[in-house]
UniProtKB/TrEMBL annotation, chain A:
GO terms of molecular function: flavin adenine dinucleotide binding; oxidoreductase activity, acting on the CH-CH group of donors
Domain of life (superkingdom): Bacteria
Stated name of the protein: Acyl-CoA dehydrogenase
Organism: Parafrankia soli
Keywords (A to Z) from UniProt: Flavoprotein, Oxidoreductase
Domain Acyl-CoA oxidase/dehydrogenase middle: 139-215
Cellular compartments per GO CC: plasma membrane
Pfam family, one: Acyl-CoA_dh_M
Biased composition annotated in UniProt, kind: Basic and acidic residues: 401-416
Domain called Acyl-CoA dehydrogenase/oxidase N-terminal: residue spans: 52-132
Region (Disordered): 399-423
InterPro entries in the record: Acyl-CoA_Oxase/DH_mid-dom, Acyl-CoA_Oxase/DH_mid-dom_sf, AcylCo_DH-like_C, AcylCoA_DH/ox_N, AcylCoA_DH/ox_N_sf, AcylCoA_DH/oxidase_NM_dom_sf, Mycobact_Acyl-CoA_DH
TrEMBL record, chain B:
Domain Acyl-CoA dehydrogenase/oxidase C-terminal: residue ranges: 242-369
Origin organism lineage: Bacteria, Bacillati, Actinomycetota, Actinomycetes, Frankiales
SUPFAM superfamilies tied to this protein: Acyl-CoA dehydrogenase C-terminal domain-like (SSF47203), Acyl-CoA dehydrogenase NM domain-like (SSF56645)
InterPro entries the UniProt entry points to: Acyl-CoA_Oxase/DH_mid-dom_sf, AcylCo_DH-like_C, AcylCo_DH/oxidase_C, AcylCoA_DH/ox_N, AcylCoA_DH/ox_N_sf, AcylCoA_DH/oxidase_NM_dom_sf
Signal peptide: none
Keywords: FAD, Flavoprotein, Oxidoreductase
Pfam families for the chain: Acyl-CoA_dh_1, Acyl-CoA_dh_N
Cofactor: FAD
GO molecular function, one term: acyl-CoA dehydrogenase activity
Family: Belongs to the acyl-CoA dehydrogenase family.
Organism of origin: Parafrankia soli
UniProt domain Acyl-CoA dehydrogenase/oxidase N-terminal: residue ranges: 7-109
Protein name in the entry: Acyl-CoA dehydrogenase
PANTHER family found in the cross-reference section: ACYL-COA DEHYDROGENASE, ACYL-COA DEHYDROGENASE FADE28
Domain of life: Bacteria
Length: 423, 379
């Protein structure tokens, strides 16, 4: 037994051979249209799709290809981001467990790996990698938006347990998830960043009520949860009491690094939650406008943005991994992705022409462009707004003066809050 | 430029950086404004000794790369040219040297040797490699008969044509695109200097009027220069981009420092959120410019199938976003930013001229759409 890890090319070949022999190639229609939001599905369809994904993940686990960046002792492969990137190239055009990747493997799995106790890691990471546990993030709150550290969900100590009360929002997959990673306030008498603690908890329990949120395009993927006297044992605490912001910072780093993560499989050339340039080409084909010089200019721009985004993610990912630039630089890729995705949605809508206003199934890839345009700003809002990214880049990367923060040095209970959240 | 250079690459880059700092400080660059060539011959010769012209040339011919990827290595030099707004025909000389080493044969060996030694520079006529929508002249034409090539036509703008001993020309022949190495003192060649937005680089309109040369002047197979021209275009774009990115880096660094130093209404510019957010955008574009051009350079070195689209994506992106970045640097400086006294315009000029050369951003977006169209299968 040596410490040398499998080289990237032999891993690539091993992955390729297995994928081709075991996974179903996608039908053209399955990757046809630009898809901004997740498809509108009934709950039955959603559960069936998820059951299939759990099955696929188990197959991948049994093949020795699951959890590429997770250590071997927790059921992973102990390999690198380069191996993950090779896998991402090989998985293109095949069915794979897309929904399990984020937030289950990262940020949730990655945070467990960073801060979990040995017992927590042994209990959950192998289960995650086998497709047995699906996780969700209980991070944002109705009162908070981008100000995540201003969490109002409280955790109060009760013997060996904690009692949680509050509400979380913009969660995905709450009706199908098994476990959640939750940021809660444990101390109101210190400044906001110093009174937070992270917990893990099973989602399906009486104290958690889940409401679906209908988005303007009909998707009901996002949920809001209400936590009422939810009891969590202290052994399910992640990191130190009142040390939640240390965990939270890393949590959000993993979130921003999803596209350059050793934990997450994302087929090369696809950007979940974005209108992909390749699908915009299909819009041009399906509307018969490929020969229009103006349309070709727009197609060139969309593909340019995609290539630049990919190379930027790689540069920042490698720079952070090598310690050449700070982890805060992840905000650079977040800002670029948000703005360029919005631009690509506009390009797709422009090329679709009148089919962006009214369409039938016969309009092919052009059919969803109107809805996608309505949802355009989601790429600049979800996962931390682009305004937040600009603050991080200017203040944390470039060292420019911080904005005035009246909440920084006073007990959180004395910090002014929105009218709707005043006690 | 790459965030991580190898130690050899770093020494190589740093040697040129120190040379440029001492030989062409910004004050010197300004005074070269009226110099007919834009640079002194010994400046170029000493630069050639530092490896400026040898990276795309094979070891067998006296060249060689630092890392195995000659173009990636060359981008570190080009980056320093941009950082220092340095003079000298880096793009055309390297394109010609690389071409002669790979396709030139024995007949062109002495020219290659003089380029390597830095005792002469070369010009390269950017031919019809980019579909420019019918704009501009159609480019030169040639006939090959009785052991002779006869060349007619006009090409403009041609960098360093007035300083070069040789011009590599792409002409249309009956059989297709053909390349010819033309000594600038050949009868029928006339070179008319043009005005330019750059201070130290020189451009000319070159007219070929019944220029007769022996067939030994041909480079590569006559009628078969399409791929060669495409490769040369990729080289030229990547080198020019790297230079533009170096200029952008300096302009950005200067402007960020200015934002800390300049006070207005009792507080530094850097404390205004509106400006902070613009700096965040600039920083993002700047990193993206580095990233896409480094990826393009590596793809060209590796002869990767995605080289063409990456090169054009880099040119289109750096052209458009780089221009916005440097113009926003001017805006943040205010009036001082558009004076000759301030250094900012030296970088503005470099970025601006490079944007317009070797295909505009719009031309390269068309090239990208052609790549997409040629992908048969739906994705």
């Amino acid at each position: 037994m040596t410490d040398a890890i499998e080289d990237v090319e032999s891993f690539r070949l091993r992955a390729r051979t297995w994928i081709r022999a075991n996974l179903r190639p996608l039908e053209p229609h399955e990757t046809l249209a630009p898809t901004l939001a997740l498809p509108v599905q009934t709950e039955e369809e959603e559960l069936a799709a998820l059951a299939r994904e759990r099955e696929l993940q188990r197959m991948i686990f049994d093949a020795g290809l699951a959890g590429i960046g997770f250590p071997r002792e927790y059921g992973g492969q102990g390999l690198t981001t380069d191996h993950q990137r090779a896998f991402n190239a090989e998985i293109v055009g095949y069915e794979y467990p897309a929904r399990l990747q984020a937030p289950t493997f990262s940020p949730c799995g990655a945070v467990l790996l960073d801060f979990g106790t040995e017992e927590q890691k042994r209990r959950h990471i192998p289960a995650i990698l086998k497709g047995e546990e699906i996780w969700m993030q209980l991070l944002s709150e109705p009162s908070g938006g981008s100000d995540v550290a201003a969490a109002l969900t409280s955790a109060v100590r009760d013997g060996d347990d904690w009692i949680l009360n509050g509400s979380k929002v913009w969660t995905t997959g709450a009706s199908t998830a098994d476990w959640g990673l939750c940021l809660a306030r444990t101390n109101w008498d210190v400044p906001k960043h110093r009174g937070l603690t992270v917990f893990i908890l099973p989602i399906h329990q009486p104290g958690i009520e889940v409401h679906r949120i209908e988005m303007l395009n009909g998707s009901t993927e996002f949920c809001q949860e209400f936590l009422t006297d939810v009891r969590v044992p202290d052994s399910d605490r992640i990191g130190d009491v009142d040390g939640g912001w240390t965990v939270g910072t890393r949590w959000m780093f993993h979130e921003r690094m999803l596209f350059n993560s050793p934990f997450v499989s994302i087929p090369v050339g696809t950007s979940p939650g974005e209108v992909g340039a390749a699908s915009i080409v299909n819009v041009a084909r399906d509307t018969g406008r490929f020969d229009d010089r103006c349309v070709r200019d727009l197609l060139g721009e969309a593909h340019m943005l995609e290539l630049v985004g990919q190379t930027l993610r790689r540069r920042i990912g490698r720079g952070v991994a090598a310690g050449r630039i700070s982890e805060q630089s992840a905000a650079i890729t977040r800002l670029f992705a948000g703005v360029s995705s919005a631009r690509k949605a506009t390009i797709a809508f422009e090329i679709a022409g009148p089919a962006g206003a009214a369409w039938t199934a016969d309009d092919g890839a052009a059919a969803s462009c109107g809805d996608d345009f309505l949802m355009r700003q989601t790429s600049c809002i979800g996962g931390g707004t682009t305004e937040m990214a600009r603050n991080v880049i200017s203040e944390r990367v470039l060292g420019m003066p911080r904005e005035r923060t009246p909440d920084r040095d006073r007990p959180f209970r004395d910090v002014p809050r929105s009218a709707s959240n005043r006690a | 430029m790459l965030l991580e250079l190898s130690s050899d690459q770093e020494i190589f880059r740093d040697t040129t950086a120190r040379f440029l700092t001492s030989r062409v400080p910004i004050s010197e660059v300004r005074s070269l404004r009226n110099h007919p060539a834009g640079f002194e011959p010994d400046y170029w010769r000493e630069g050639a000794e530092l490896g400026w012209t040898s990276l795309l040339v094979s070891e067998e011919h006296g060249g060689g790369s630092v890392s195995g990827g000659g173009l990636v290595d060359l981008t570190t030099i080009a980056h320093e040219f941009g950082v220092h707004a340095a003079p000298g025909p880096l793009v055309p000389t390297n394109v010609v040297a690389g071409t002669l080493s790979t396709f030139g044969g024995e007949a062109h060996r002495p020219v290659l040797e003089s380029l390597l030694a830095g005792t002469s520079v070369a010009a390269w006529c950017f031919g019809p490699a980019v579909d420019t929508d019918g704009r501009g002249p159609a480019g030169p034409r040639c006939r090959i008969a009785d052991g002779e090539v006869v060349l007619d036509g006009v090409q403009r703008p041609v960098e360093a044509a007035g300083q070069a001993h040789h011009i590599l020309v792409t002409a249309r022949a009956e059989g297709g695109l053909t390349q010819i190495l033309v000594p600038t003192d050949t009868a029928g060649v006339s070179i008319e200097p043009m005005r330019t937005a750059d201070l130290t680089r020189r451009f000319a309109a070159v007219t070929f009027d019944g220029v007769r040369l022996p067939v030994e002047a041909l480079v590569g197979e006559p009628g078969d220069a399409d791929e060669l021209l495409e490769y040369q275009l990729q080289l030229a774009v990547v080198i020019g981009n790297a230079e533009a990115v170096g200029a952008l880096q300096t302009a950005f660094d200067m402007t960020l420092q200015w934002a800390f130093d300049r006070y207005s209404f009792g507080r530094p510019l850097a404390s205004y959120q509106e400006l902070k957010h613009r700096f965040a955008d600039q920083k993002t574009w700047l990193e993206a410019c580095h990233a896409v051009n480094d990826a393009a350079a590596a793809a060209v070195d590796d002869r990767s199938p995605d080289a063409k689209e990456l090169v054009s994506a880099a040119k289109a992106f750096i052209g458009d976003y780089g221009s916005e970045l440097v113009q926003d640097c001017v805006q943040i400086h205010g009036g001082i930013g558009v004076t000759f006294e301030h250094d900012l315009h030296l970088y503005l000029r470099r970025v601006t001229v490079n944007r317009a050369l070797y295909g505009t951003p719009a031309d390269h977006r068309q090239r990208i759409s052609t790549v997409l169209e040629n992908r048969k299968e739906r994705v």
